[in-house]
Amino acid sequence: MPLSPGEKLGPYEILSAIGAGGMGEVYKARDNKLNRDVAIKVLPASLVNDADYLARFQREAQALAALHHPNIATIFGLEQNAIVMELVEGKTLQGPLPVNEALPLARQIAEALEAAHDKGIIHRDLKPGNIIVTPEGTVKVLDFGLAKTVEKQSNTTAADSPTLTLRATEAGLILGTAGYMSPEQAAGKPVDRRADIWSFGVVLHELLTGKRLFDGETVSHTLAEVLKTEIDFPPIPAGPIRDLVRRCLDRNQKTRLQHIGEARIAIENYLANPQKAAPAPAQSNRWLWPAIAAACLLAAIAGWGTLLRKPSKPIQSAKFDIDPPEGGRFPLLSGGGGSAISPDGRTLAFVATNAKGERLIHLRSLESLEARPLPGTEDGGRPFWSPDSKSLAFVAGGKLKRIDVAGGSPITLCDARFPRGGTWSENGLILFGDQASGLQSISASGEFPPPSPS
Predict the structure, then answer these.
(1) Which of 22, 77, 342, 399 has a CB 3.0–4.6 Å from the CB of 389, allowing a cystine?
(2) Is 125 a residue of the active site?
């Protein structure tokens, strides 16, 4: 039953209604004991008679009360069937905002999530409606972890509705708001802190563009978009921030950004030196073939001394620019970029994104004026060649793979969670470095461990 101004809830006097949502009705109230205003969230009437739910709700509220952070709205306690919280004055998060205004807000959201994740608490329903910006510019994130306690069907029907709670499959519950939930939430699978990282990416995308990323006609349509629809990255300025959003919005949990602290660091680095972080002008974003050829020659001198004893042929030189696909760009090596020239010196393999934001390995032959994408290398990076110049090894989806440049499907060789690069020897062995597993010797045929050299 709705509360009216002047009514009492324990020691709290109701002043006015603030709003309502899937988690219940919210009121502004006066704490007469401590002479302060508070926010009171009263549980929906459909839940107050559920003893199991109330017990779980109280346990969750007690855990959340342990969260003390300047960017998290504090929970003061429980009163009957309500949560007493810090009253946050301000406006909900709204875009579009210029990068220099959006990122300080995003940094504070990341700090709030980081503090909660460090205590094992997942938000599960991060969205602009749960983020308040005070007149002083301080971000306050509301409703941490409360979605976990809801298991009842709500009356929500729109993608931007308050907490969406649907019993989906035996694997679990869909908990969250349709347009901001992670693919694993949308599929009813168990979630961890990476679900919050996905939601952070959706919120940051909206903060920068002013448009909802997933906004179907119905909840079902929105969930389908979350699971399958191609994500539009170009509206976000090219550079580290677009790379950050892309990593947050990786549908593969294993290759998604793993810790929200990485997002905070990336944002802080950008804010500390935005000029350095900005993408280079088009002219300086080109690679000159002579420089690449010179690097290749140095590698040849170091590794292929036997070639120096063979009669040399007159050297032919060529000079031209290598550009990314129209509307695309070259990613940083740290974001999965890289390039490699074939041992025969005839073909350059390089990583580039196209106008849709898709990252692939491209091949540019010395005899061709255009580069072509190599199918099967989606999200690939750090390429290196086989000695016969017929195959490429590359990293994609946390795996080291190989593919024939003439065509065909890639072959997975081993795990590559934190790749550092590799080299391919003439005896069919690949020496590959990974920060997690160290230096490995892998057979290029996919055998592991590799056969002993004869």
Answers:
(1) 342
(2) yes
